[in-house]
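Weekly modeling sync, notes
Attendees: S.R. (lead), two postdocs, one rotation student

Agenda item 3: backlog of single-chain predictions. S.R. asked that every request posted to the team notebook include the full sequence so nobody has to chase files. The rotation student volunteered to paste the first one in as an example of the format we agreed on. Action items at the bottom.

Example entry:
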Amino acid sequence: MTTPILAQKVSPKEFEKTVLKSSDPLIVEGERVYRGTEVTDRAVVTFKPEPMFTDKARRKKTHGLVEFFVIFSASGEVKVLSARKRLPNGLTEEALKQHQEFGSSQRC
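Predicted structure, as returned to the notebook:
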């Protein structure tokens, strides 16, 4: 099971500012990470599991999209860095759980 690489409990805007928009090389788990502007061929996502709704989300009629900052390793593994857009009532956690269950076995 893949363990998410969480950005040190900073807000998504702060994370984006300090990590994604920086010109310094980014190293995650000893692997150089290339930004979208540094590559000619971008990764293509070929599989996206649909997370289950929690009972609380159903009762409160919560819906929407959860977005994560992720990296695609050279082997094709998807690693979660941080949540960019969260949802209440357990939906963010459910989306992360789906990634952990399917993300390590699926390749982009």
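Discussion: group reviewed the output briefly. The mean pLDDT is 77.
Action items: rotation student to repeat for the remaining queue; S.R. to check formatting next week.
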